[in-house]
Specification:
Number of strands: 15
Number of helices: 7
Number of domains: 2
Strand order of the largest sheet: 4-3-5-6-7-8-9-10
Structural class: alpha+beta
Oligomer: single chain
Largest sheet: 8 strands, mixed
CATH superfamily of the largest domain: Fructose-1,6-Bisphosphatase, subunit A, domain 1
Shape: globular
Distance between the termini: 49 Å
Order of helices and strands: HEEHEEEHEEEEEEHEHEHEEH
CATH topology of the largest domain: Fructose-1,6-Bisphosphatase, Chain A, domain 1
Radius of gyration: 17 Å
Helix content: 25-40%
CATH class of the largest domain: Alpha Beta
Strand content: 25-35%
Length: 262
């Protein structure tokens, strides 16, 4: 039995309600890295989602940001980020979400991203379009970088990927109406899917960051690849570029130009 979009949306809304109730409260914060935070709300949301999946699909594999690989049938895999945008959440910044992605044989096929403050539920299933609540969404129609507003994110660790993205950010901000760094890969993809942003790129992601968002983006008409232009993006190092089919090659060309001049 395959999951239904409505079923998964229901789980995301329940987890999102927990997060909304906890927003702006004092949190138990620990550090997974120098600037990589986790709160008790990550754990509460994760516990709820894992129980929902285990109850409905007990044999499926689950990979979660906080608990890692929980095992199961590798052919059917859930990727969950119970609180994507934890740093925002811990500071009371309302740009965070619950992200639930489902993949079959390594290909994401269903995704739900729920932003609980604005109560915006982005969802998609392969071949059935992308949705914001009950409204169909589509990519923007921007055709030139100068017309576009882009979004990106940065790895937590200041590695070579971080430095590369600093160079890309510096380059792209000069060619566009602006580049935003908002702090949630899943929402960045969804905002690109519904045309709030015109394009997106990011390096050094994790599968739970993107498993839901890429389905929503592609079903909305976004061309998504890795940073070298390959459609086989759902594998390490999980780096993405995405925009509508007209803007996409221009975005990818400029990102490539940065790497060519290291």
């Amino acid at each position: 039995m395959e999951p239904t979009l409505e079923e998964v949306k229901g789980w995301a809304l329940e987890a999102g309600k927990l997060l909304r109730q906890g927003l702006n409260h004092k949190h138990e914060i620990r550090h997974k890295g120098a600037i990589d935070l986790v709160t008790e709300m990550d754990g509460r949301s994760e516990k709820l989602l894992i129980e929902k999946i285990h109850n409905s699909f007990p044999k499926d594999r689950i990979i979660s940001e906080e608990s890692g690989d929980l095992g199961g049938d590798g052919g059917r895999c859930w990727y969950i980020d119970p609180l994507d945008g934890t740093t925002n959440y811990a500071h009371g910044v309302p740009y965070f979400n619950v992200s639930i992605g489902y993949a079959v044989d390594g290909r994401p096929t269903l995704g739900v991203v729920y932003e609980p403050v604005r109560r915006e539920c982005f969802s998609a299933q392969r071949g059935e379009g992308a949705w914001l609540n009950r409204k169909r969404i589509h990519a923007s129609e921007a055709t030139e970088l100068l017309q576009s507003l882009l979004v990106t994110g940065f790895p937590y660790e200041q590695t070579e990927a971080f430095e590369q993205n600093m160079r890309s950010f510096d380059h792209m901000v000069r060619l566009t109406q602006g580049v935003r760094r908002c702090g949630s890969a899943a929402l960045d993809l969804c905002y690109t899917a519904c045309g709030r942003f015109d394009g997106y790129w990011e390096r050094g992601l994790k599968p739970w960051d993107i498993a839901a968002g890429v389905v929503i983006a592609e079903e909305a008409g976004i061309r998504v690849t890795d940073l070298e232009g390959s459609p086989e993006y759902f594998k390490p190092p999980y780096s993405l570029a995405g925009a509508n089919p007209v803007l996409y090659p221009k975005l990818l060309k400029e990102l490539g130009a940065v790497l060519a001049h290291r």
